[in-house]
TrEMBL record:
<dbReference type="Pfam" id="PF00857">
    <property type="entry name" value="Isochorismatase"/>
</dbReference>
<dbReference type="InterPro" id="IPR036380">
    <property type="entry name" value="Isochorismatase-like_sf"/>
</dbReference>
<comment type="pathway">
    <text>Cofactor biosynthesis; nicotinate biosynthesis; nicotinate from nicotinamide: step 1/1.</text>
</comment>
<feature type="domain" description="Isochorismatase-like">
    <location>
        <begin position="4"/>
        <end position="186"/>
    </location>
</feature>
<keyword id="KW-0662">Pyridine nucleotide biosynthesis</keyword>
<dbReference type="GO" id="GO:0008936">
    <property type="term" value="F:nicotinamidase activity"/>
</dbReference>
<dbReference type="GO" id="GO:0046872">
    <property type="term" value="F:metal ion binding"/>
</dbReference>
<keyword id="KW-0479">Metal-binding</keyword>
<dbReference type="InterPro" id="IPR052347">
    <property type="entry name" value="Isochorismatase_Nicotinamidase"/>
</dbReference>
<dbReference type="InterPro" id="IPR000868">
    <property type="entry name" value="Isochorismatase-like_dom"/>
</dbReference>
<dbReference type="GO" id="GO:0019363">
    <property type="term" value="P:pyridine nucleotide biosynthetic process"/>
</dbReference>
<keyword id="KW-0378">Hydrolase</keyword>
<comment type="similarity">
    <text>Belongs to the isochorismatase family.</text>
</comment>
<protein>
    <recommendedName>
        <fullName>nicotinamidase</fullName>
        <ecNumber>3.5.1.19</ecNumber>
    </recommendedName>
</protein>
Length: 187
């Protein structure tokens, strides 16, 4: 029985100065790093990354910021890199998603090391039964990843202060939705 921390999409493009910067991105990156440096009890730490090559209508020149977005997190670009404040030496594996289509959930991602292992398979191999979710954006990828984690049968907690929304109200609604779906929201 292991406990995992899933860091969702703490990438430059989702932080201030990035093409899809969320207001609290830098703060959340710093605070997640404090958690990584603390005496936490996570057995494994993984990260998801939006990793777009040609994601079709996910990118738009007239984005609505709900279903369509400015170009962001292009594979191997500076914008797709993890925020520099996150000590990546603590991250055991990356799960990349969205190469050719929109992919909000980390559970759609494949391990960067072999290009194939899915997040759920990797967590199960590591005997993970409980996950804590943090990252960006609360109202999109954190929501989708946490919902899928519940569906996969993990005990799920979301650390609210370590998540940054695109839209504050939608972010709050996402946390309520997750709580109703059975997640523990740590405030
Ligand atoms: C995300 C908007 C578009 C996210 C990804 O990581 O939450 N948000 N693509």
């Amino acid at each position: 029985m292991s406990k995992a921390l899933i860091i969702v999409d703490v990438q430059n493009d989702f932080c201030p100065g990035g093409s899809l910067g969320t207001e609290r991105g830098d703060e959340v990156a710093r605070e997640i790093n404090e958690l990584l440096q603390s005496e936490h009890d996570y057995d494994v730490i993984v990260a998801t990354q939006d990793w777009h090559i040609d994601p079709g209508t996910h990118f738009s020149e007239q984005p609505d910021f709900v279903d369509t977005w400015p170009a962001h997190c292009v594979a191997d670009s500076e914008g797709a890199r993890m925020h520099p404040d996150v000590d990546v030496s603590k991250i055991r594996e990356y799960f990349r998603k969205g190469e050719y289509t929109a992919a909000y959930s980390g559970f759609e991602g494949h391990a960067a090391s072999d290009g194939s292992t899915l997040l759920a398979q990797w967590l199960n191999d590591a005997a993970v039964t409980e996950v804590h979710v943090v990252g960006i954006a609360t109202d999109h990828c954190v929501l989708a990843t946490s919902k899928d984690a519940l569906k996969e049968g993990y005990a799920v907690s979301v650390i609210a202060d370590l998540c940054s929304p695109v839209d504050k109200n939608r972010g709050e609604s996402a946390l309520i939705e997750l709580e109703e779906a059975g997640a523990n929201i740590i405030r």
